[in-house]
Every structure is written in structure tokens, then in C-alpha cells.
């Protein structure tokens, strides 16, 4: 990585407000005032609506009070394309402070053998490993390959072995950021499961990794996402808020993704793997998750295990059950609302 790339990433992480201003200047972005949100207009990006930084709340995890005992039936659905990350993923899953069944997908017999060796001593629940076609990456493997399992669980984790090879230097910390905020400690997981015990919340995902924050836009995925959602009976356009679990890792209630799980998608709907970085139905579904959650009658919130520093988005700390309930209400936003 050259000096200027290192400087850009340093600024993105440590001075996000200044980095955002530079990004807007570089790309000729015009900002439309929409109150709690802004409209982003540029000659090179599809118009999109983003929350103002000061309105983009995340709930602090771990919680600042002991979470009640976990009563939910929990599953982890894990796509491991890179078996060299299997050991790291297993150790993270051991942070789930309750029984958990693990469903692992991969793409070749030799990968399955390597993963079986790593998970042979996993003692928190049953481990199922299956091989699926190398289409649709983690999305197809989890939500088509394992779609029959979700009726048996109250809460599930969707996670995968991420490397971001198309931008390895700039995004080198992204996987760690996602893993830490979803599975970084038993206390973090307990906090997320307590948030999901709120009947309104259907999906929880990490606040954006700072270097990718300004890249959260439609890319080449706007029409693909719009058409996909239309097929599920959900209408949207680029005057809806664009928010999605960038990196495609999150905790969720299966009922909140029922429209996706009940769809007639098959592996054949996804193109053969060619290292695509945008524009496929898998990328569209990643951007559709929150629309699906809201269409199913649930809300979504972000979490952050870090500490707030200058220029970052606000983190809401909860010291009691009542404060957590109030913070969930404050952190809830809607992608179905049009601006």
C-alpha cells in the first residue's frame, strides 16, 4: 500500500468527518437537505438517500447491564469458502453463550474435509457441513441451501469467511470489524440476543466499517435490487433510504426474512462465480435485506462495540432494560420511508 492510500485509510478511521468532506469534493457530490437524511447527487453515482452522521445511531454492545438468560433456540449459518479461516470462525462461535447448532456450507470436498477437522471438537451443538454449487456465495448457500432449517430456530447468525480480495489493502480490517461486532465476546453476543428479544427488532448488524462508509451506495445494483424486491411484492426507488448490512453478516429472526425464505429462488438464479464485485443478484439481496425485514413487519438496528471518538456516528449506551428499550426506539430507522 502506498503512502497516500495509507493516509486515506488513516483519515477514514480516525477523522471520519474530514474524510467524508474530502470524498464529497473528490467525487463532485451535491448534498440535498432532507432533515434527518441527505440526498446524495453525483454524475458518477445513482442518486441515493443516506442518514446524516449525527442521526445514524448504533446501540453499544456489550450492554451496560447483565442480560437475562438466553431462552432462544439459536443457529449459526456459516459459509466457509476459505477453509483457512475455519479455525478463527470456530473460536468466534464459541463466544455464543448458549447452545448453538452450526450449519456450514462450502464449495468442494477437500474444503469440507478441512472444515470437519477444525470443527470436530465443537461442543456447543450439532455441526452440519454441506457442499453447494459455487454460485451466489454466502447468500445462496445460506438462504437457499439451508432454507429448510430456519423454521426450527428463533434467532440465527449469518456469517462467512470474508477476504475482499478486490481491495485487500484498503479493506484489510473489515472482516475483523464485522467479526468483533457480531461475535467478539460472550457479552457482545448476549447483548445482541437481548436486543433481538425485543419483539419489534428483526435484524441486527454492525455499524459501517469507517473506510467503506462513504461507499455505501447503490453501485451497479439499483435496478437489480428494485426488480428483485418487486418480485417479492416490495416497492422501492432511489428516494428510499439506502441502508444495508455491508459485508453481509448479521443476526436475525427467521420470521423477519420470511419473504426471502419463502421465495422460489434457486441456485440457478445466481450467475457462476467469476469474482464479481457488484451487479449480481447476490449483491442485490444484500441491499434488499432491510426492505424485506420491514415488509415482514419488523425493524432493524445497528450495533457498535467501539467507543465514540470525534466525528464518528453516535453510540447509544444502555444501563438498564428501560434504557435499552428507549435506545432501540431512537435507533430504529426505516428504509421503506420515502424522502
Q: What features would you describe in this structure?
A:
The protein is an alpha/beta fold and 339 residues long. The protein has one domain (58-331): Spore Coat Polysaccharide Biosynthesis Protein SpsA, Chain A (Alpha-Beta Complex). The chain is built from eleven helices and twelve strands. The strands form two sheets. A nine-stranded mixed β-sheet has the order 7-6-5-8-10-9-11-4-12, with helices on both faces. β5 (74-79), α3 and β6 form a beta-alpha-beta unit. α1 (3-14) crosses α2 and α8 packs across α10 (281-295). The longest helix is centred in the last third of the chain and has 15 residues, at 281-295. The termini are far apart.
User: What summary fits the major beta sheet?
Assistant: 9 strands, mixed
CATH homologous superfamily title: Spore Coat Polysaccharide Biosynthesis Protein SpsA, Chain A
Give the domain tally: 1
Average pLDDT reading: 91
Give the helix level as a range of percent. Answer: 25-40%
**Content-based structural category:** alpha/beta
CATH topology: Spore Coat Polysaccharide Biosynthesis Protein SpsA, Chain A
What is the CA-atom radius of gyration, in angstroms?
19 Å
User: What percentage of the residues does DSSP assign to strands (E)?
Assistant: 15-25%
Q: Please report the distance between the alpha carbons of the first and last residues.
A: 39 Å
Strand order of the largest sheet: 7-6-5-8-10-9-11-4-12
Give the CATH level 1 class. Alpha Beta
The parts where pLDDT drops under 50 for at least 5 residues are none
Number of strands: 12
CATH architecture: Alpha-Beta Complex
**What spatial form do the alpha-carbon principal axes imply?**
globular
Give the H and E element order: HHEEEEEHEHEHEHHEHEHHEEH
Counted by DSSP, the helix tally is 11
Amino acid at each position: 500500500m502506498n503512502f497516500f492510500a495509507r493516509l486515506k485509510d488513516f483519515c477514514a478511521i480516525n477523522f471520519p468527518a474530514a474524510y467524508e468532506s474530502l470524498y464529497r469534493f473528490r467525487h463532485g457530490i451535491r448534498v440535498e437537505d432532507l432533515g434527518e437524511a441527505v440526498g446524495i447527487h453525483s454524475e458518477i453515482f445513482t442518486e441515493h438517500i443516506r442518514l446524516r452522521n449525527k442521526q445514524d445511531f448504533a446501540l453499544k454492545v456489550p450492554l451496560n447491564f447483565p442480560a437475562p438468560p438466553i431462552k432462544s433456540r439459536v443457529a449459526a449459518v456459516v459459509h466457509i469458502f476459505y477453509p483457512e479461516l475455519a479455525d478463527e470462525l470456530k473460536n468466534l462461535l464459541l463466544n455464543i453463550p448458549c447452545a448453538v447448532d452450526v450449519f456450514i456450507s462450502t464449495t468442494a470436498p477437500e474444503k469440507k474435509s478441512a472444515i470437519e477437522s477444525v470443527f470436530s471438537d465443537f461442543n456447543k451443538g450439532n455441526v452440519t457441513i454441506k457442499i453447494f454449487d459455487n454460485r451466489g456465495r454466502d447468500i445462496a448457500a445460506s438462504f437457499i441451501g439451508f432454507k429448510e432449517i430456519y423454521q426450527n430456530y428463533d434467532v440465527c447468525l449469518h456469517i462467512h469467511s470474508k477476504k475482499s480480495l478486490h481491495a485487500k489493502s484498503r479493506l484489510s480490517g473489515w472482516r475483523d470489524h464485522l467479526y468483533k461486532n457480531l461475535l467478539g465476546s460472550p457479552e457482545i453476543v448476549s447483548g445482541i440476543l437481548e436486543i433481538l428479544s425485543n419483539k419489534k427488532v428483526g435484524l441486527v448488524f454492525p455499524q459501517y466499517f469507517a473506510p467503506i462508509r462513504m461507499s455505501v451506495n447503490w453501485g451497479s445494483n439499483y435496478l437489480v435490487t428494485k426488480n428483485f424486491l418487486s418480485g417479492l411484492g416490495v416497492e422501492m426507488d432511489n428516494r428510499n433510504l439506502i441502508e444495508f448490512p455491508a459485508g453481509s453478516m448479521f443476526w436475525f429472526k427467521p420470521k423477519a426474512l420470511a419473504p426471502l425464505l419463502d421465495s422460489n429462488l434457486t441456485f440457478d438464479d445466481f450467475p457462476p462465480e467469476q469474482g464479481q464485485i457488484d451487479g449480481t443478484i447476490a449483491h442485490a439481496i444484500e441491499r434488499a435485506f432491510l426492505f424485506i425485514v420491514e415488509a415482514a413487519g419488523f425493524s432493524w438496528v445497528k450495533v457498535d462495540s467501539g467507543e465514540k471518538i470525534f466525528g464518528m456516528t453516535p453510540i447509544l449506551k444502555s444501563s438498564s432494560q428501560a434504557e435499552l428499550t428507549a435506545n432501540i426506539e431512537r435507533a430504529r430507522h426505516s428504509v421503506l420511508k420515502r424522502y
